[in-house]
Structures are given as structure tokens and as C-alpha cells.
UniProtKB/TrEMBL annotation, chain A:
Keywords: FAD, Flavoprotein
GO molecular function, one term: oxidoreductase activity
Domain FAD-binding PCMH-type as annotated: residue spans: 1-223
Source organism of this protein record: Flavobacterium subsaxonicum WB 4.1-42 = DSM 21790
Protein known as: FAD-binding molybdopterin dehydrogenase
Highest taxon, organism lineage: Bacteria
Keyword Flavoprotein: yes
Pfam families: CO_deh_flav_C, FAD_binding_5
InterPro entries linked to this entry: CO_DH_flav_C (IPR005107), CO_DH_flav_C_dom_sf (IPR036683), Diverse_Substr_Oxidored (IPR051312), FAD-bd_PCMH (IPR016166), FAD-bd_PCMH-like_sf (IPR036318), FAD-bd_PCMH_sub1 (IPR016167), FAD-bd_PCMH_sub2 (IPR016169), Mopterin_DH_FAD-bd (IPR002346)
From TrEMBL, chain B:
Stored InterPro entries: 2Fe-2S-bd, 2Fe-2S-bd_dom_sf, 2Fe-2S_ferredoxin-like_sf, 2Fe-2S_ferredoxin-type, 2Fe2S_fd_BS, Aldehyde_Oxdr_Iron-Sulfur, Beta-grasp_dom_sf
Lineage per the UniProt record: Bacteria, Pseudomonadati, Bacteroidota, Flavobacteriia, Flavobacteriales
Gene Ontology molecular functions: 2 iron, 2 sulfur cluster binding; metal ion binding; oxidoreductase activity, acting on the aldehyde or oxo group of donors
Descriptive protein name: Oxidoreductase
PROSITE patterns: 2FE2S_FER_1 (PS00197), 2FE2S_FER_2 (PS51085)
Origin species: Flavobacterium subsaxonicum WB 4.1-42 = DSM 21790
Record bears the keyword Oxidoreductase: yes
Keywords: 2Fe-2S, Iron, Iron-sulfur, Metal-binding, Oxidoreductase
Domain 2Fe-2S ferredoxin-type: 7-83
From TrEMBL, chain C:
Pfam family, one: Ald_Xan_dh_C
One function term, GO molecular function aspect: iron ion binding
Domain Aldehyde oxidase/xanthine dehydrogenase a/b hammerhead: 21-135
The protein's name in its UniProt record: Aldehyde oxidase
Length: 339, 161, 745
């Protein structure tokens, strides 16, 4: 950790002023990721701007369109346990509770969750080449130990994955991200928020420096009847997903009116393929149909020496989670497999 | 950029008010251990990966290692040293001793603070849920069984805050 | 008041209150005045030389007091021998900051000392090193052709090489009707005690130091510091009252001790050096191993031939060996055996003993091989063990001092419900889960080291015992107090076991599950001596009721000396002390194993683990849903703390079988998951029903107390039992640990 300055801001305008166009001035909210990155010297800061004192963005509020706005500064725990979220968006609640630990969820904020950085071993070790940390230095993971890495959407520059669980559910729910900045407010569709690595793996998302997330809007449709979040990992809890799946189904009897499927742990962003969801429209909710949808989602998937297993695993996880969504009460703590 | 801007930070820790002049890079964990000599809160990884540094800030269990002290100005902090009241152990402390819920003892303060936070949250109903919501606290000695036994006993017996 | 005898009672840990209130202080928690903080800098290359060091930016920081590198370190002892600790393997010991050579990635190459922790850490990041890199090797498997026989040295005494061949293995194996063969590989593991290594050095002036050190051996650290820095032995005091876990990592002084002492002596200041979690992966580990086994049996299931060869990893400078391949012949009476063990020297730090070193890795292979043999024979795996049960040690022909393994098998099988098992793999199911039952045997040595204890009866009639041992979470303090309580007839509250201090009488480091037997025997010896002295003084009192009474007619009970025939005729210790008008009565006594007697016996602890796993049919996820481990370890002093030791070991077994591994990137020559987020140990949610049974094993030969030690044995059988259960569930033999669930897809 370098010796940085610290300032508080009570609104976005103050924060933007404090950021002052210096990319080495950074925002801190929950601190669970940036403070860690600072300790590892993965990042350094001239100044941390604390946005916790913001007067706004601390609440979960209903929207006129029947949706809900999640304040950017509401903690992950308060979001997951909010009665409206629990009843209307239980998929989001389950996904959040599958991430990190209770302590971290008590600290981490909704806005921060979107902006957390990858957990790639090589990204965290400042003494190894990593294009995300040091553009142009090379990717150590491609030829290294890549068990936790991407199978979809990666590039030859970076095979890191985005580690969030919450965002997998937000992607499935078609959330939108409310942003404010020096040039005013804007809204991004969730699918447009995070980026693929391409030639610019050092840029995780489309939030520009100086911009701040103020909230996340959930549309009215919450898939509260048929939903499931499944997380597969190397221990039962407190570890990142090797593969996770968020599934929401709108059923008419056994026929699927609408399906949403998003994957975590497989790409540089939550992975959604609408063609697969379109395929499921009007079909029976069966293992076979989920398998066919999985094949569409996983088209073009490419593994490496240590993560090839993610391709068949992801397929099986999509199928299982489809079946779990038919019986959401079967879900277990930690989003472990059930049925 | 170098800075020597210390920030005066008010913390109420275990009922006592402190005013600390700290640089922003001092974690709440190091402030407690090095500046207030409250070494009961443990540093097991310093990176949010073990739970040994768990304390209660304004009643909620958080990781003091990933918390900057300056960010908690005006907060009420309870550490393991503040759990027993007037020499009387908290029911969970007693249950930990009775169930031999520790060996080396290094994760214990974090387990207990986390356990108290967990009980207060009231979200865990079954043994499986208690184990899940306590999984942010690692125990290398392998005292999991005693820890969860102790928590279940206190949860079912009540009498905790 | 507890009732005596205390031995055998489930007494809660006597230090419990300190541990649950946060008042227990560990090595890095002594906030002595004017403390300086050290932060270590580690090599970022794997092999080569440091060619230049630029410390300017670091030195320029306000608060930086000093920076030590090989270029400016104060002079220390020159000879290897002076650096060699009590657990040093044969070879050339690593000397921190000795020269510019880099022997492994993460090697400590500098120490920054600053006024506060944050400044030291930041300054450490600003030092720039230039290196000349050399080619390195860090992978075991690609370098098996470089295997060599381990060098011999002092440490070989505790870790003898494999026994010579018996019979004719090749011939017996080739002609056997039933045979199996397999290869087993084990990942690197790191101990990762939750407390990170720390030394707080208090500079007392004139070459005198008081050191709060994280170690499993206070005297080991004291010797190391005195030898390396040329100090008088008595001027170095090492204190370790609380140790936040060790698991073997503290058997050798770690480099933070060297660094903190060096800085303290040079700066004449109090200095603390605490390692960070990544640095916890830079000084020793359980080595990677690869093992090849071939077992054969006759048609009735008698094991006739056993071949076990193993290759372990060591550093380029020391030959660290484990007892890896010698175990099967201590269990199974095959006539034809062939055991071989070699090492490959790699550009990594020297491995260091980690809980049940060698035993847990070797027995995983042996007991999986036995399971395969059982299937080949179409025999129940438990029946195969019973069929080949040997009351004597087949490898030496000597009887065991005691061996209640059969009870372990039978009691654990009964409690587990082994007879409900359908032997067909994949035949048992529960919903979407395949259910598997597996079992395995455990064996571990029963060590006893020499130990010395001083006992004092105070004028209040209370007993104080002194010994240098640590209590790394084992319950040592509690069990020692219990042993003493019974021997002298005092309540636990009236006894103080004063330990964790190199100034106290001798104890070996705390390893090998040996301390209860070692220090425990010395306590019995010294208290007997103390009782003699007390009685002698009591007899000398005017009008003493014990004058002319024979020793055997007198008992020590309830804090008093009494006549056996009439316990009302008693004199309390307190009264004795008042009447003789002396401040205290002291005794000091050494105890050690009875080598002459024990040379005619083999000695071992045994265990049997029975495990149920559930494996998700499609997803492969593995859950250890239940496990029962029965342990035969002689007399159990405290069933509560002993049970915790075994439960903890069982969780270590789950971890070794399914979770933990240090990932080595052989391209970079370094460990990539040097943190607790990606080095996976089980969380609470991974742990389900665990049961412990202590077999009733009376051992009148091993030592006076009949103790064998329980720190490691509970781990030994678990990994094989889990792997065998996974086979039973899925029909898949996965011989590489840890077994990640994707291997079952």
C-alpha cells in the first residue's frame, strides 16, 4: 500500500471534484476489493475518495414501472436480505448470498460489486507478466495454471474471468446501470457494462474515470416463481465460482414462455446468449431442451490445459440449474447443487 | 504522491472513546492492534480471506483488515475484548470453551465475533445454514465441529444479544 | 473442584478463557515500547544472482530506519553448523542474506526496518533489485531422472531409510494369482497455521535479548539465535506462550527470527518482524511426491508381495527426507518386499515436516492399493485387512508394545454401519447422488523424547511445574496439569504448568505427537521425586505422624500427605510448608524412553477410518457426509482435547484428499496461490458428521503413563478412506490428490 490521501464526498459532484481528472485518484466504497489491491500493490492511488457519506444512493426503492432501484451504496447483504428483493427477485438474493462471506457482504456495496477486478493469480502477483495489470507484458495464464480461467469470450491477451456472483443474476434479470459523471447522467444496459478483454484487457468495464455508479435498476419481471442460482467451486463456500449459472424461467404449465440463463466463472463478463433463450421459448422445460440451449450458449467455447473441464461442466450445470429452477425450494445454502 | 495527512478519527471501541490521528493507509485492524493494543483481533491473512480479523462495527460483523480506520470515523466498534461483560463471559464464549471449539485459539476471536454477528442477523435457521454463514471464518486446526456445535447450542438456548 | 483422578476426564482447556476473550498474546502481539517494524523483501526470480540493489527510494521515506541486504548485513556466524537447528536435514543450511545467490523464488533478500508497519511495507516495495537469472527446475515429475538417494546425517536417526528387501519380490509378484499396481501423485501443501510467523525481539542491552517467537521449540530458537549471532546461550530467552498453530512449520526457526534479531542487535532497538501470508509459502512445505506400488496376494487373500517406491522433492541445498514407503510392512506380513525412496533436488525451499509427514502420503497409496487388491480378490476391504492382520511387526518380527488396531476396525465399522455396504461400485444412491463407503488403516510412530521438568511446592501448598515446551493448540498445558494432579493429589486449580519459555528445563520441539509422552513422563518422574522430598521434610517435623511409616503406607491426596490406613491422619502441604518454615521445596528430573527395554519392541499408534461420500451424478461434486475414525493410541489423558486433535486431523484428511494444494507454475518456478483465498482449506460448510472412537489400549511397556500421542494419527487413514469411498461411489480410481470434482465428470 502506498501512502495515499483520503477525502470524503457527500454527493457525486463533490466526488467528481475530488477525483479531479487524475486517474490515480480512486473511489472507495465498501473497500473490500480496492483496499486489497492496494495492499498487493496491484494498484496504487494518489487519493481515495470515500463515497460512503453520499446523502443519496443508500436505499432500495420501488420504481414507477414496477421495477426496483438498488442504491449503489447499499451493501450486498442488505440487498440480499431486503424483503422486496427476497420476494420479487429471489434469484438476485441467492446469487449475492453465494458470493464471498457474510462479513464481506456486510461491507461490499452494489456499485462496488460491478467494479471488482478479476481473481486471476497472475493479475494479483505483481512480479509476473499480466496484460490486465501491465498492458503489453504478456499473459502468464494462457500457458500457466489456468484452472479458474475463461472458456468464452477470451482473447490471446487475457483469459481472466470476472468473479462476481451478483452480476450473473443482474445480467439474467436485464438490469440497467445508472451512471453519473462530469458529462452528466447516462444509463447502460447490463450487457453493455462489462467488456470482453480483446486488445484492452486492462479495461474491465465501460465506466469512465470520473464516472460513478449511482444505482442499478431492476425491471419489473423478477422470475420469482421459477429461478435458481447454482455455483460450482473447489469448496462448499467462500471461494470463487469455477462455473455458476443464474436461471430464471417464466412458465406456462411446463412450457417456457421466457427463459434467462447467465453464466459466471467462464468469461470476462457474465455470459448470456439470447439465442439460447429464444430457443427455449415455447418449449417444454426438460433436460433435453436445457441441454440444447446449453450447446448454443457454449458455442465457440475453448479451454486450456487446466480448464477444459469447464466446457462439459458448464453444460451440465445449465441443465441442472434449469431443473432446479422448476423446484426453487430445493436450493441449498451456498448455491450448492441440489435435486 | 506522498502525503502525511493524518486524519483525526473518532472511534468508540468496546465502550471507550478514542481519538486517533491516523494516516489513511492504516487499516482498522492495525489501528486496533498497534495503536490501541487491542491484539485480541487477529491478523491471519490481511487480505479478507480468513475472517480472523472479524469485529463488529455498528453491530455488524465486518473484516477489519479490509477496512481503513479513517473510513470508520464516528463508528462504534466491538472487538473480542468487549464481548464479555463485567468479567462474565458471553454465552458463546462459554460454549466455545465447553465444546472445545478451538485449539491454537488464533481464529477464535474472529469466530466468536462473527458468530455473534451471525446470531444477531437471524438468517441462519438450520445447522447447514449456520455452517454456510460462518464459512467466512477459517479454522486451520479443524475445530469446525465444536464451533458449529457451540453456535447451535447458543442459538437454540437463546440468551445472546 | 474437579474430582481425581483427572487423567481420563474431559477437562476443558485451562487457557480457554484467555483464548475466548482475546487476552492470549501471540508472538507478534507484544507491543513493547519504541518498537520498530520489519518487513521482509523476497526474491522475484527463482535462481541466479543479485547483481545490483537500489534502496534510495526506500531510504528516502520518512520513518525508514534501516535496510539490510546481503551487502550490508552485520557479520554472523560463518559455518553451516552454527545455523543448523535441531531439525536440520543433511546438507547445507540456508543462511538468510548470506550472499547474492538466489536458490528459490521468494527467498528473503532484504529487510526494511521502519517506525511503523505501513512504512516498512511500502518501503519494501520500493527497493529495486537487478538479477542475473539462471535456468531452474521446480517440477518433480519432469525431473524424475535426477532422483538420488537421500544424504545421511543426524536427522536420519529419526527418519531411517527404507528397510532392505525381503524374499524375492519380482518372482513372487510375477507368479502371484492376484496382483495390482498403481501410481499415486501428491501435490505440494503448505502448513498455513492461521497465525503468521512473527518474532518480537526485545533488546535488553549488552548482547541480551528476550524474544517472543512463533515456534514449536523455544530451545531450538534459542540455540539458533545464540549460535548464529555469537551470543551467550543464557542471554537469549525465547518465549512462546501461545502459538497460533504450527503443524510442523515451526520445527525449524524461520527467517523472520533471524531478521528480527539481526536488526535488533544492529540497531540496539526492539524490533518485530511478521511475515505476510504470501511469505508463509516461502520457507517449507509438504513435498510433492510420486509413488509406485505393486501388491500381490494368493487366492485366499494373503498379501504375499509388496513393492513401494517413492520419490520426494527436496531443495538444492538440503536433503529433506520423509518416511514414505516403509509403512506397509509394519502392517501386512508379506514375505516378499521391496521398498525404495529417492529425492529430486529442485530450486525450491527445503520442505519441512507437515502433520504426519510421509505417513499420510505413503498410507494413502498403500491403503488405496489394498482397496484395489480387495476388489481384485472380490473380498470385503475390511476382511482383507483382518485377513492380513499381524499382532507382531512383520518388518522386524518384534511384538508391538500394544496394538489395538483390530478393535479400531471393528468398533469403527460397527458405529459406521459398514455391513450395510453393497460392494458393487455405483450401487448405492441417494436422489441425484452416488453414495460410496470407503475405509482405510492408519499407522504412525509413537515417539518419546528426553525432557526435563522442575517442580516446586510453594509455601501455599501449590505446585508449579517448569518445562520449555510449547502448546501449539494441542492441549499440552491442560494435559500436563492433569498428569501432575493425579501424581501429587492436588486440584487442577492448585497446579501451574509454566511453559513456552527457553529458560525452563529442556524439551524437544513439539512435533511427532511426542510431547505428551515426553514431558508427561518427566512430570511423573519429577513429582515422584518431589513427593519423596516433601515426605522427608514432613517426617522431620516434631511429632510427625509419618515418622517410621514406610513410603508405601503413605499417600498423597487432596493436597495432603496421609496414612493409607487412616486418611484422617493427614498433614496438608500447606501445613508441612508452614512447619518446616521453608519458602519452597524443589525437585528437577529428566525422563526419556527406556531404550533398553523398548529395543525389543515395535511401537506405533494405529487408526481406522470409515467414510461416506456423496458424489453428484452429473456434476461430480463430492461431499464427505460422514466419517468415523477409531484411534488406538494408548492411554488418553484428556478425551476432550484428544478428540479435538483427532477431529482436526480428520478435517486435514478431508482437506488433503479433496481441497488443499499449492499450485506450482513450472514456467515461472513459483507458487501461484500463495494466499488463503486460492489455497483452499475446508470451510465450515464442507464439514459434516465426524465421529471419534478411542480404542481401549493399555500399553504397559511404552512408558510409565502408557501414552502414545494423538496429534497426527487421526489424519493418516482419512485420505485413502475418502479416495476408496469415491471409487465405491463412482467406479473411478483417482490416485492424484487432491481429487478435484471435475475429475469425476
Amino acid at each position: 500500500m502506498n501512502n495515499f490521501a483520503y477525502a470524503k464526498a457527500t454527493n457525486a459532484a463533490q466526488a467528481i471534484e475530488q477525483l479531479n481528472g487524475n486517474t490515480q485518484n480512486k473511489i472507495v466504497a465498501g473497500g473490500t476489493n480496492i483496499n486489497d489491491l492496494l495492499k498487493y500493490f496491484v494498484t496504487q492511488a494518489d487519493k481515495l475518495v470515500d463515497i460512503n457519506p453520499f446523502i443519496d444512493n443508500h436505499a432500495i426503492t420501488p420504481l414507477e414501472n414496477g421495477g426496483v432501484r438498488l442504491g449503489a451504496l447499499v451493501t450486498n447483504a442488505d440487498t440480499a436480505y431486503n424483503p422486496v428483493i427476497e420476494s420479487k427477485y429471489p434469484l438476485l438474493s441467492k446469487a449475492i448470498l453465494a458470493g464471498a462471506s457474510a462479513q464481506i457482504r456486510n461491507m461490499a456495496t452494489n456499485g462496488g460489486n460491478l467494479n471488482q477486478r478479476t481473481r486471476c493469480y497472475y493479475f494479483y502477483d505483481v512480479n509476473t507478466p499480466c496484460n490486465k495489470r501491465e498492458p503489453g507484458s504478456g499473459c502468464s495464464a494462457i500457458k500457466g495454471y489456468n484452472r479458474i480461467h475463461a472458456i468464452l469470450g477470451q482473447s490471446e491477451n487475457c483469459i481472466a474471468v470476472f468473479p462476481s456472483d451478483m452480476c450473473v443474476a443482474l445480467a439474467a434479470l436485464n438490469a440497467t446501470v445508472n451512471i453519473t459523471g462530469p458529462d452528466g447522467d447516462r444509463v447502460l444496459a447490463f450487457a453493455d457494462y462489462h467488456r470482453l478483454p480483446g486488445d484492452t484487457p486492462h479495461i474491465d468495464n465501460n465506466l469512465k474515470h470520473g464516472e460513478i455508479i449511482t444505482g442499478i435498476d431492476l425491471p419489473a419481471k423478477g422470475f420469482e416463481k421459477n429461478y435458481s442460482y447454482l455455483k460450482l467451486r473447489d469448496r462448499a463456500s467462500y471461494s470463487f465460482a469455477l462455473v455458476s449459472v443464474a436461471t430464471g424461467l417464466d412458465l406456462d404449465g411446463t412450457i417456457i414462455n421466457e427463459a434467462r440463463i447467465a453464466l459466471g466463472g467462464v468469461a470476462h463478463k457474465p455470459w448470456r446468449v439470447t439465442a439460447a433463450e429464444d430457443f427455449l421459448k415455447g418449449k417444454e422445460a426438460t433436460q433435453d431442451n436445457f441441454a440444447a440451449a446449453a450447446d448454443i450458449i457454449l458455442q465457440g467455447a475453448q479451454g486450456y490445459e487446466y480448464n477444459n473441464f469447464k466446457i462439459p461442466l458448464a453444460k451440465r450445470a445449465i441443465i441442472r440449474n434449469g431443473m432446479m429452477a422448476l423446484n426453487p425450494d430445493s436450493q441449498r445454502p451456498g448455491a450448492q447443487p441440489s435435486l | 504522491m506522498e502525503t502525511n495527512n493524518t486524519h483525526t478519527t473518532s472511534l468508540r471501541v468496546n465502550g471507550t472513546d478514542y481519538r486517533l490521528d491516523v494516516l489513511p493507509w492504516v487499516s482498522l485492524l492495525d489501528a486496533l492492534r498497534e495503536k490501541l493494543d487491542l491484539t485480541g483481533t487477529k491478523k491471519g491473512c490481511d487480505h479478507g480471506q480468513c475472517g480472523a480479523c472479524t469485529v463488529l462495527v455498528d453491530g455488524k460483523r465486518v473484516l477489519s483488515c479490509l477496512t481503513l480506520a479513517v473510513m470508520k470515523d464516528g463508528s462504534d466498534v466491538t472487538t473480542i475484548e468487549g464481548i464479555a461483560k463485567n468479567q462474565e463471559l458471553h454465552p458463546l464464549q462459554k460454549a466455545f470453551i465447553e465444546h472445545d471449539a478451538f485449539q491454537c485459539g488464533y481464529c477464535t476471536p474472529g469466530q466468536i465475533c462473527s458468530g455473534i454477528g451471525m446470531l444477531k442477523e437471524g438468517k441462519a435457521h438450520t445447522r447447514e445454514e449456520v455452517a454456510e454463514l460462518m464459512s467466512g471464518n477459517l479454522c486451520r486446526c479443524g475445530a469446525s465441529k465444536g464451533i458449529i456445535d457451540a453456535l447451535m447450542e447458543v442459538k437454540e438456548g437463546g440468551g445472546y444479544e | 473442584m474437579t474430582k481425581l483422578p483427572s487423567v481420563g476426564q474431559p477437562v476443558s482447556r485451562l487457557e480457554g478463557r484467555q483464548k475466548v476473550t482475546g487476552s492470549a498474546k501471540y508472538a507478534g502481539e507484544y507491543n513493547v515500547p519504541n518498537l520498530l517494524y520489519g518487513y521482509v523483501v523476497n526474491s522475484t526470480i527463482t535462481k541466479g544472482k543479485i547483481t545490483a540493489i537500489d534502496t534510495a527510494a526506500a531510504k528516502a521515506l520518512k520513518g525508514v530506519e534501516a535496510i539490510f541486504t546481503h551487502q550490508n548485513r552485520p557479520s554472523t556466524a560463518w559455518f553451516d553448523m552454527q545455523y543448523a537447528d535441531m531439525d536440520a536435514p543433511p546438507g547445507t543450511v540456508f543462511k538468510p542474506l548470506h550472499d547474492n545467490k538466489i536458490k528459490f523464488n521468494g527467498q528473503p533478500i532484504a529487510l526494511v526496518v521502519a517506525e511503523d508497519f505501513e512504512t516498512a511495507r511500502y518501503a519494501a516495495s520500493l527497493i529495486k533489485f537487478e538479477y542475473e537469472e539462471e535456468a531452474f527446475i521446480t517440477g518433480l515429475i519432469p525431473n524424475l531422472d535426477k532422483a538420488h538417494e537421500p544424504k545421511k546425517g543426524l536427522a536420519t536417526m529419526l527418519k531411517p531409510p527404507p528397510p532392505p528387501p525381503t524374499g524375492d519380490f519380482e518372482k513372487a509378484y510375477n507368479s502371484a494369482p492376484v496382483k495390482v499396481a498403481a501410481q499415486y501423485t501428491h501435490a505440494t501443501e503448505h502448513h498455513n497455521p492461521l497465525e503468521m510467523y512473527a518474532s518480537t525481539v526485545v533488546y535488553e542491552g549488552k548482547g541480551k535479548l528476550t524474544i517472543y517467537d512463533k515456534t514449536q521449540g523455544t530451545i531450538n530458537s534459542q540455540l539458533f539465535v545464540a549460535n548464529v549471532f555469537g551470543l551467550h546461550f543464557k542471554d537469549v530467552r525465547v518465549l512462546s506462550p501461545f502459538v497460533g498453530g504450527g503443524f510442523g512449520s515451526g520445527l525449524r526457526p524461520q527467517y523472520q527470527l533471524f531478521m528480527a534479531v539481526m536488526a535488533s542487535l544492529e540497531l540496539k532497538r526492539n524490533v518485530r518482524v511478521t511475515l505476510d501470508r504470501a511469505q508463509m509459502f516461502t520457507f517449507g512445505h509438504r513435498p510433492q511426491t510420486i509413488q509406485n506400488l505393486k501388491f500381490a496376494a494368493d487366492a485366499e487373500g494373503n498379501v504375499t508381495a509388496m513393492n513401494h517406491t517413492g520419490v520426494g522433492e527436496t531443495s538444492s541445498y538440503e536433503d529433506y527426507a520423509e518416511i514414505l514407503v516403509s509403512w506397509s510392512h509394519m502392517l501386512y506380513p508379506a514375505k516378499n518386499t521391496l521398498f525404495e525412496y529417492d529425492l529430486v533436488s529442485l530450486d525450491l525451499p527445503t520442505p519441512i515436516d507437515m502433520r504426519a509427514p510421509g505417513g499420510v502420503s505413503g498410507m494413502h497409496a498403500i491403503e488405496c492399493m489394498m482397496d484395489e487388491l480387495a476388489y481384485e480378490l472380490k473380498m470385503d476391504p475390511l476382511q482383507l485387512r483382518l485377513k492380513n492382520y499381524s499382532e507382531t511387526d512383520p518388518s522386524t518380527g518384534k511384538p508391538f508394545t500394544s496394538k489395538a488396531l483390530k478393535q479400531c476396525y471393528l468398533e469403527a465399522a460397527e458405529k459406521f454401519g459398514w455391513n450395510e455396504r453393497n460392494p458393487e461400485p455405483g450401487s448405492m444412491q441417494r436422489g441425484n447422488k452416488l453414495v460410496g463407503y470407503g475405509m482405510a488403516t492408519g499407522i504412525w510412530d509413537a515417539y518419546q523424547f528426553p525432557a526435563r521438568v522442575k517442580a516446586i511446592l510453594t509455601k501455599e501448598g501449590k505446585l508449579i511445574l517448569h518445562n520449555a515446551t510449547t502448546d501449539i493448540g494441542t492441549g499440552t498445558m491442560t494435559v500436563m496439569t492433569q498428569i501432575a494432579a493425579d501424581e501429587i493429589g492436588l486440584q487442577l486449580e492448585d497446579i501451574t504448568f509454566d511453559y513456552g519459555d527457553s529458560k525452563k528445563p529442556f524439551s524437544m520441539f513439539q512435533g511427532g505427537s511426542a510431547i505428551t509422552a515426553s514431558t508427561g513422563a518427566a512430570i511423573v518422574a519429577v513429582v515422584k521425586e518431589l513427593k519423596k522430598k516433601i515426605l522427608k521434610k514432613a517426617r522431620g517435623i516434631d511429632g510427625s505422624p509419618f515418622k517410621g511409616i514406610k513410603d508405601e503406607d503413605i499417600i498423597f491426596k487432596d493436597g495432603a500427605i496421609a496414612l493409607k490406613s487412616d486418611t484422617n491422619l493427614a498433614l496438608s502441604f500447606k501445613d508441612v510448608m508452614a512447619l518446616i518454615k521453608e519458602p519452597e521445596i524443589k525437585a528437577k528430573k529428566m525422563a526419556g524412553p527406556d531404550i533398553l527395554k523398548l529395543k525389543n519392541y515395535s511401537k506405533a499408534t494405529h487408526s481406522a477410518s470409515f467414510v461416506e461420500v456423496e458424489v453428484d451424478k452429473e456434476l461430480g461434486t463430492i461431499t464427505v457426509t460422514r466419517a468415523v475414525t477409531a484411534v488406538a493410541a494408548g492411554r488418553i489423558i484428556n478425551p476432550k482435547t484428544a478428540r479435538s486433535q483427532v477431529l482436526g486431523s480428520m478435517i486435514w484428511g478431508i482437506s488433503k484428499a479433496l481441497h488443499e494444494e499449492t499450485i506450482l507454475d513450472e514456467n515461472l518456478g513459483k507458487y501461484m496461490n500463495a494466499n488463503l483465498g486460492e489455497y483452499h482449506i475446508p470451510v465450515h460448510a464442507d464439514i459434516h458428521e465426524l465421529d471419534v472412537i478411542f480404542a481401549d489400549e493399555k500399553d504397559e511397556l511404552i512408558n510409565e503413563l502408557g501414552i502414545k500421542g494423538v496429534g497426527e494419527i487421526g489424519l493418516v487413514a482419512m485420505p485413502a478412506a475418502i479416495a476408496n469411498a469415491i471409487y465405491h461411489a463412482t467406479g473411478k480410481r483417482i490416485n492424484t490428490l487432491p481429487i478435484h470434482f471435475d475429475k469425476l465428470l
